[in-house]
Amino acid sequence: MKDFKNKLVFITGGASGAGLGQAQVFTEAGARVIIADVNQERLDEAVKSGAAVEAIKLDVTDRAGWAAAADGIEKKYGETVDLLILTAGVNVFGPAEASSYDDYDWVVGIVFGGVVNGLVTFVPRMIKKGKGGHIASTVSWGAFGAGPTTAPYSAAKAAQLNLLESYYEALKSYNIGVTAVCPANINSHIYESQLKHIEAGHKTGYNVSEGTAALLATIHAHGMDPKVLANWLKEAIENDVFLCVPYKSGPEMVEDALSRFPLLSTADGIKKLAEKRTQPPTEQELRFNAEREGYDVGAQRQAPEPPKTDGPALDWAKIGFGKASRDADWVEAGKKAD
């Protein structure tokens, strides 16, 4: 897809963060952008700002809501979408062994299930339209590696990436492209989602508080600007690139991240990995981390030392970020909040 003028674009999570950046960029490219989100106030603000022609309140886990949105678009515009962008997401942090059913149901339901719902709803309609098109999804750098404190999220993102690659191969004959954009740190409000997890009455095994949300806010403040990310995605769509890793060193980063698998497949390789973990990070690893996160990760996590860069200046240890809840009595003490 090279020309976005008058194309009909539907973006989930479109009222803030990465989704709003996408709405702004594709609107500026001449597209008719429809955004969907669960936050009505931010939806209204986005439309008022001119970032979208229409806003639809949608919980991406609601399949009936998806069908109603798709039907409504066809009724109003006389056709289904040309470009579907699936960006809605949530996250929460804590030791894998502390994860509850609610943690998995909530994260996987939105991060993976929301993408499944979007694909199942719109792909048949796009095929029947007969004009080709494109599907994109904001995956995550987390898709490339296991996270001891992001198990539900990392698993859902890895599954999402695999799913999209399946559709990338399957939809070629219909002239429908697929792109997975995989950023790390983004300047967004995703940190708010963990508090909504608790406010909804979900039972979590993680330590979640105003403090952990505040720390995440300081981290995300150093992340990539959403419009910069959206322009990376736009260029990938224009060139029919499947995997968009939005960094100058992106291809090298992917190669480095996946290099662990051959080592994990042998006993000697596992020993080499264990030895590597005892060594300080290499210059390349430090450069990759800084490029993805927007600040010197290593310097910031040496709490309670004073911050050595302009990164998040909060005490990770006191806040208990990434820790289990206090009542998770099966989790070792060092992994639980004080």
Regarding CATH, which class of the largest domain?
Alpha Beta
CATH topology of the largest domain: Rossmann fold
The amount of helix comes to 40-55%
Q: Give me the CATH superfamily of the largest domain.
A: NAD(P)-binding Rossmann-like Domain
User: Quick one: biggest sheet?
Assistant: 7 strands, parallel
Task: Report the principal-axis shape.
Answer: globular
- Terminal CA distance reads 52 Å
Q: Which CATH architecture of the largest domain?
A: 3-Layer(aba) Sandwich
Cα radius of gyration in angstroms: 20 Å
Low-confidence stretches: 299-309
Number of domains: 2
> What is the count of β-strands?
7
Q: Overall pLDDT, averaged?
A: 92
Secondary-structure content class: alpha/beta
Structural description of this entry:
With 338 residues, the chain is of the alpha/beta class. It has two domains: 239 residues, Rossmann fold, CATH 3.40.50; 42 residues, no CATH class. Helix content is 48%, strand content 10%. The protein has 15 helices and seven strands. It has a seven-stranded parallel sheet with strand order 3-2-1-4-5-6-7, with helices on both faces. β2, α2 and β3 form a beta-alpha-beta unit. α3 packs parallel to α5. The longest helix has 20 residues. The N and C termini lie far apart (52 Å).
